[in-house]
């Protein structure tokens, strides 16, 4: 009898661990949505430094609409998207909107030179070790992830300015 009780207790404990173990704990303690890379999922957290040495943690930006721009200065389509992204950042930066560039440039020097030449004014991460890129399975650039204020992915793909503006406007209106 005691063996059966211990076995059942162990089984309940094991099932509880399995049921809870697949969810990444959110900062607010809620596991309402899964973490993943598809639209509707919570974007994976990352913690790193920007090119100025400031700590960046994605989950700390909750409450803001966040645009993650995976790119490199040597990439022609990435370079072509910069003017529109500059306009988007300038239009929304005062409205609970944050933009983070995640660059895979060959060198920090090349990246900083390009940023200065083009007057790029949003936070940049130099990801030459591909740490953040691996979290997001980036296999082609440019690639955008747009997150709502809760950190949920509302867009993933090529930086289409018309679609991005529409989605940013909608996300900013939501609480």
Characterization of this structure:
With 175 residues, this protein is of the alpha/beta class. The chain has one domain (33-173): Glutaredoxin, CATH 3.40.30.10. Helices cover 38% and strands 19% of the residues. It has 5 helices and 7 strands. The chain has helices at residues 2-21, 76-92, 108-118, 131-135, 161-173; strands at residues 47-49, 55-57, 65-71, 97-103, 123-126, 143-147, 153-157. The strands form 2 sheets. A 5-stranded mixed sheet has the order 5-4-3-6-7, covered by helices on one side. It has a two-stranded antiparallel sheet with strand order 1-2. The longest helix has 20 residues, at 2-21. It is globular, with a radius of gyration of 20 Å. The model is unreliable at 5-31 (pLDDT under 50).
**What is the CA-atom radius of gyration, in angstroms?**
20 Å
Sheet having the most strands: 5 strands, mixed
CATH fold title = Glutaredoxin
Shape: globular
Counting DSSP E segments of at least 2 residues, the number of strands comes to 7
- Kindly report the spatial arrangement of strands forming the biggest sheet: 5-4-3-6-7
CATH class equals: Alpha Beta
Kindly report how far apart the N and C termini lie. 54 Å
Uncertain runs are 5-31
Order of helices and strands: HEEEHEHEHEEH
In which range does the helix fraction lie? 25-40%
Strand content: 15-25%
CATH architecture: 3-Layer(aba) Sandwich
Q: Tally the structural domains.
A: 1
Q: What is the CATH superfamily?
A: Glutaredoxin
Average per-residue pLDDT, rounded, comes to 86
In DSSP terms (H or I, runs of 4 or more residues), the helix count works out at 5
- Helix/strand-derived category reads alpha/beta
């Amino acid at each position: 009898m005691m063996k059966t009780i211990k076995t059942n207790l162990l089984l309940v404990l094991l099932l509880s661990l399995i049921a809870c173990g697949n969810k990444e704990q959110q900062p607010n303690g809620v596991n309402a949505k899964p973490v993943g890379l598809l639209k509707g999922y919570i974007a994976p957290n990352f913690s790193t430094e920007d090119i100025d040495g400031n700590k960046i943690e994605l989950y700390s930006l909750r409450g803001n609409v966040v645009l993650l721009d995976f790119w490199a200065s040597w990439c022609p389509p990435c370079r072509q998207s910069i003017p529109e992204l500059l306009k988007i950042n300038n239009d929304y930066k005062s409205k609970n909107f944050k933009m983070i560039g995640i660059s895979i440039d060959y060198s920090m020097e090349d990246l900083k030179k390009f940023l200065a030449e083009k007057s790029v004014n949003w936070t940049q991460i130099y990801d030459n070790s591909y740490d953040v890129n691996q979290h997001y399975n980036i296999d082609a650039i440019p690639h955008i992830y747009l997150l709502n204020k809760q950190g949920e992915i509302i867009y993933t793909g090529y930086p289409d300015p018309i679609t991005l503006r529409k989605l940013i406007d909608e996300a900013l209106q939501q609480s």
